[in-house]
Amino acid sequence: MSPLGAEARARGRRRLLVVLLLLAALVAGGIALYVNERDSRQQPRQLGAEIVGDGVELEITAQEVDPAAQEVTLYTVLVPHGSLAAAPGSLAFSRAVEVTVSSLASSTLKTVAGQVATPQPITVGLYGGTPTDYPFDRYRIAAGWSATDRGAPVPVGITFTDADPFFTARAADASESEDEARLEVTFVRSRSTFILAWFMIAAMWALALAVLGGAEVLIRKRRPLVWPALGWMAATLFALVGLRNAAPGSPPIGSVIDYVAFFWAEGIIAASLACTVAFGLRVEHRTADD
């Protein structure tokens, strides 16, 4: 083998190694981002002071954040402490306890003596956000819990967990006394939702500009109707609709993502396709006349 051939093979191997290292770095970065988001979410967080003696701990899990309905479902499990437990470390209540939930609407949770409290779904209204701000929309909730044992108030504590895959919850304890637990939560879009939304915006613009560039070449070179190119443009026009509808969280039409990318991309592609067909027809007619 000649020295030039050997050098070319060595350069090829170096390029392949660089590509493989770059791919490995990207995959490792993606795994690191996933692990970080997984570890920072769906982790129980105790809010407020720990219950000492008699009291009720509320294990609250936020699920099903619904911006369209402006509500979130909080699954609440009541855990007894002290003499309210049927036995040390038991999850069953020794006697009936009432827990009152105060939010936009009030409700009451009741326990049964000798039984473990089952998860109870509580619907709390969202406020302070607009669904069309997607993916920058954020929402807030505020709710309070108070418990009574035979008419006497007992201390209440909160352990909060975020379980909605599309949102990240930032919870804070706003309690003013140990007899009432008040929870304030801000919901923002999760990191993975942000990444995918920005990728979709970039992809829409890239495809629109690619179609615009292809149309410019066909028109500048006075090409007749090139059916494969026209089919690609038309397919891209309708493919973006499916891409838009696949946005995580199903944002409503007219959201920020539409005004930033989708509407413009659809308009550019439609105009490029129409202009390419119009100029192609003119060329076809001139060729036929000649």
Note the topology:
Elements: H1 3-40, E1 45-47, E2 55-66, E3 71-81, E4 98-102, E5 107-110, E6 120-125, E7 138-149, E8 152-154, E9 156-162, E10 167-173, E11 180-189, H2 191-220, H3 227-245, H4 256-289
Parallel strand pairs: 2-9
Antiparallel strand pairs: 1-9, 2-3, 3-6, 4-5, 4-7, 7-8, 7-11, 10-11
- Briefly, what CATH class of the largest domain? Mainly Beta
How many structural domains in the coordinates?
A: 3
Helix/strand structural class: alpha+beta
Unreliable parts: none
Report the biggest beta sheet as strand number plus sense, adding barrel if it closes.
6 strands, antiparallel
Alpha carbon gyration radius? 30 Å
Total beta-strand segments: 11
Task: Determine the fraction of residues in helical runs and give it as a percent range.
Answer: 40-55%
Question: What would the average pLDDT be, to the nearest integer?
Answer: 87
Q: Kindly identify the CATH topology of the largest domain.
A: Immunoglobulin-like
Proportion of strand residues: 25-35%
Shape: elongated
Give me the CATH architecture of the largest domain, please: Sandwich
Taking the alpha carbons of the first and last residues, their distance comes to 57 Å
Contiguous helical run count: 4
Output the helix-strand order.
HEEEEEEEEEEEHHH
Protein name: DUF4436 domain-containing protein
Keywords: Membrane, Transmembrane, Transmembrane helix
Pfam families: DUF4436
Transmembrane segments: 195-218, 225-247, 259-281
